[in-house]
Amino acid sequence: MSSVPAVDRPADMETDSESVAVVALATNIQEPEPEPEPETDSGLVQVVEPSDKTTFRLTLEPIMMLLLLGVNVSMMVQTNLIEERVCLHSDLVKNKSVNCYNMTAAEQEIVQPAVADLQMIKNLIETLVPCITALFLGPWSDVNGRLPLFLAAISGMVVSNCMYCVFSTIPSLPPVMFLLCSIPVAVSGGGGALFIASFCYIVDITDFKTRAFRLGVLQTFISFGSIIGSLLSPLLYNKSPTYPFALSSMSTIAGLLYTSLFLKETVVIKKGTNTKLFNLSLVKSMWKTVTKKRFGFLRCIIILSAVVLTFNLAIVLGEDSLMYLYLQKQFSWTLENYTLFNVYATLLSASIPAIGLYFLSTKLEIPDMYLATAATGLRIIEKVGLAYSQYTWQFYFVKIFGCVVLTSEPLVRSQLSKSFPAEDLGKLQQIKIVSHP
């Protein structure tokens, strides 16, 4: 039989007839790769290819576990510390019967509105500034490497934790001063820069078949770091408010040293590369990459993924910042009660998704978006259940449905990485900024 010659079509057309040209690769759609061009020193970025991408090797997982240990040791006690300082600088302190270090439920209700306002401002500082800087971070890391992004983000966390450590030793310091601790996190890119670098690094060192599972393993290490930090937090806080922040500082410093000494760069930096961070041409290139017409429905996948990931971020930020205050008011929980619940929830989210992703994604090869849709459905059930829970046991039971809450984001990112060329991934990650989990 004679072969039928292929017909070239313009890459910027987006019609139903062109969707036939989309390549089906292991149940994941992907744009056809362009024909190879003669090798020239064009100055473009190159990714260091590992000798065997299917071989599992720990790389950044221990780093993320150390960082999240430090984050949770600090985060779990920040609300209590701010509550104490608001009480110490309010009219309540004039009443000699009020103990700001051991307030009753009625006294906590008085200070909680001010605490919630400070938490909201803190979240705004740590997210609004990174929203702007992150427009430049992904494209910049595609050209200048992943390690500078890691080092900058972790350095901001180190400075912030050290500031908390110092401020916690000064009872006379007004609670509003704790907002200064958020500035280093904001200017260094925050959690968004850290997780953008983490995702791009995982993409660099894995193949598409094992990527979803590897992202699940990374999430498991993050979760176990969170569990350890949550368990240690109240124990240290009962001895001294400074101890948790001291441990958090040491943990993030250890993560910074580990990154600088042992983590290998995956991007080959060409001579003459533009190292300027705030390069508007990078932003322009990013938006062209995100919005350009593509084969089939790939552009729609990018936009819908952005919507999904943005909603996930809103849920995480809104829930995490006020959950402890809500449980204090609803069930009169103490820090110890909340710690046990947080450990329980994190343990579920760390173990079940990793096992499930290994069998469902890696072994059974179920498409990532099918799994992400199922995870989102269970997440809706969980949130409705939490809202209507009247007893503690109901809160614990409903959380079982939320054990897959951390899988939808890795699955969506895995789908993006399988659908688009590797050189575009850093740009595509800017459609959503990730705060700490």
Poorly predicted segments:
1-31, 33-45, 430-437
Helix tally equals 14
The amount of helix comes to 55-70%
The structure class reads mainly alpha
Sheet-strand content, in percent, reads under 5%
The outline comes out as globular
Major beta sheet, strand line-up = 1-2
Report on the structure:
- It is a single chain.
- The chain is globular and about 70 Å long.
- The chain has helices at residues 61-88, 105-144, 147-167, 182-187, 190-205, 211-239, 242-262, 280-291, 298-331, 335-363, 368-387, 392-398, 408-419, 425-428, and strands at 23-25, 28-30, 46-47, 267-268.
- Strand 1 and strand 2 (28-30) form a beta hairpin.
- It contains 14 helices and four strands.
- The strands form two sheets. The chain has a two-stranded antiparallel ribbon with strand order 1-2. It has a two-stranded antiparallel sheet with strand order 3-4.
- The chain is an all-alpha fold and 437 residues long.
What's the gist of this structure?
The protein is mainly alpha-helical and 437 residues long. The protein has helices at 61-88, 105-144, 147-167, 182-187, 190-205, 211-239, 242-262, 280-291, 298-331, 335-363, 368-387, 392-398, 408-419, 425-428, and strands at 23-25, 28-30, 46-47, 267-268. It has a two-stranded antiparallel sheet. A two-stranded antiparallel sheet has the order 3-4.
